[in-house]
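Reviewer 2 asked us to include a model.

Predict the structure of this chain.
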Amino acid sequence: MRRPSLLHGSLVAVAALALAACSATSGDGAGQSASADPGADLGTLPVAVPLGEVLGQGTVLDDGTGPELCLEAVAESAPPQCDGPPIDGWDWDAFAGWTDVSGVRWGAYAVQGTFDGERIAVTADPIALALYDPMPIEDEPLPAGTTDEAVLGEIQEVLADALGERALGSGIEEGRLEQSVVYDDGSLQEHLDTVYGPNVVHVVGALRDVGDAESSATPLPEPDPTVTTDMLPAPAIPAGEVTIRGLVTDDGTDVGMCLGDVAAVHPRAVCDDLLVAGFDRTSVAGGDELDGVWAETLDLRGTFDGTTLTLTQPAALPDPLVPQGDGGPPPILGAPPTDELIAVQDAVIAELGDRAFLVMAFGDAVVVTVLYEDGSLQGYLDARYGAGVVDVGGLMADVEA
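Predicted model (structure tokens):
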């Protein structure tokens, strides 16, 4: 695929993913002053290939030559342009949530598979990022670096040349160089610490290790036997304004938003997953119309009464750098889900029904996505299945006052 023309230091999309990801950090003395030498001999940079499965988030794009997982920034053209590792085993017809324009298909997904250094072979069903509500992780913050910005700029250029296509983007932040790469198991970080000193370059990988499939699972906590299904709380109604992203459809009479598995083809009728009031399509640049139904993916802000979202601000085209919903960064995945956890997944599916847009045993917890969550459903599921067994997130996010 043709690589879009983008400035090396402007790959904010990759930085947003990479800085949230758990990566190898500098060794002892990370906060000490480093007399880094941009002209130091880099030697042979190690090239890591993961031993197990990895997880990546980004746009999957296929221009007819095969799907690729775009780990860099995406050029906002119509259709978009980007490139990344080719994907084997990808079947567009097996799931929804993608767009097809001028023979180019694309969609945003969390992709899990093996990576041989060049290609990704999928090993699990992809999850549309619109429904991906992973569990938050706690990363130990790095101390501020002390290397001069001009020196870091020279190192940035050296690494851009040395890493070649392995480099996804870089930027100078808090006295150190944040260098994004496709994958690192810690060996590149260790090598650069040796060359330049600790806390001069921080390496972050876009592909994350899923974990050792042979690792033992932690036993599930004991649930509260007094909590029964008749205690399931009603769907929560937000007290104030919320934001949500989705495919808005308008036939000139009714306006609705498509949620969940959006049809891969242009809707022939207005979606009724979420009714929308106060929408003016003339305020939005773009959108396509087919059989009298206009559609476009938009960010909406308004009040929600349980059925209808009444807009309080004009709709806007989505900003790919702004996260959606109330989810957090990617989880640290351990062993594949146990039979016990899958049993919890099946029970939650039966219990929540159409109320849940996603229920999936993922890593060491069951991930649940609903339209809106105020903590009441999380509290109920914690009591019913044990604290931390089920992680609930909402497609809507509260607007902070």
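Residues 1-34, 212-217, 328-334 have pLDDT under 50 and may be disordered. The helical segments are 12-20, 149-163, 187-196, 339-352, 376-385. We have added this to the supplementary material.
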